[in-house]
Amino acid sequence: GFGGTTGGTGGDSYVTIPNSAFITGEVINWSRTPYRLFKTALTVSERDIELLPSIIQQVRRVLLADEGIESQERDLIVAATGFSQGSIVVEIKARLKGQGSHEIAMAKTRVVDEIASVVDMVYKTPAAGRQRGYQDRLEEGRGEKDSATTGTVGR
């Protein structure tokens, strides 16, 4: 087009970049980078706020140990970022290594499973059970984790 360059993204989508961007700025083809941004979130009930530091620390520890996550050149972010309907939102942003869609899908599944395992472990520790009446909440069956990209923590 006039004043811009149009390029395909590989999936029936097109992007137009102003020609001035080629002259005055840097254009990065993100599809050629060896990492893919993965963002997810979980929520921790405000009733379980005392577990928040442990959840954040353990999720970070487990993800740093995952060889499929780039944490040397790219930041791994695990942080409480806000509130939603009586819960504290914890956002997780990581760069997954790989380019193929199947490879990335498998990595996403693994990361979500690792996060769910951490949350489960934190809630099953004897200290957590004593602090919030874990057994009572377990029997009530409230706040089950969602296996997609957002989980609710707190039973």
What can you see in these coordinates?
- The protein has helices at residues 19-24, 52-65, 101-124, 126-132, 134-140; strands spanning 4-8, 14-18, 35-45, 69-70, 77-84, 87-97, 150-153.
- The protein is α+β, with helices and mostly antiparallel strands and 155 residues long.
- Helix content is 37%, strand content 30%.
- It contains five helices and seven strands; from the N terminus they run ββαβαβββαααβ.
- The strands form two sheets. Strands 3, 4, 5, 6 and 7 form a five-stranded mixed β-sheet that branches.
- Strand 5 (77-84) and strand 6 (87-97) form a beta hairpin.
- Helix 2 runs antiparallel to helix 3 (101-124).
- It is elongated.
State the helical fraction: 25-40%
SSE-based structural type: alpha+beta
Order of helices and strands: EEHEHEEEHHHE
Distance between the termini: 56 Å
What's the tally of helices? 5
Radius of gyration: 20 Å
Q: For the residues shown, what is the average pLDDT?
A: 80
Overall body shape:
elongated
Q: Largest beta sheet, briefly?
A: 5 strands, mixed
**Which stretches are poorly predicted, pLDDT < 50 over at least 5 residues?**
142-150
* Strand tally: 7
Short recap of the structure:
This protein is of the alpha+beta class. It has five helices and seven strands.
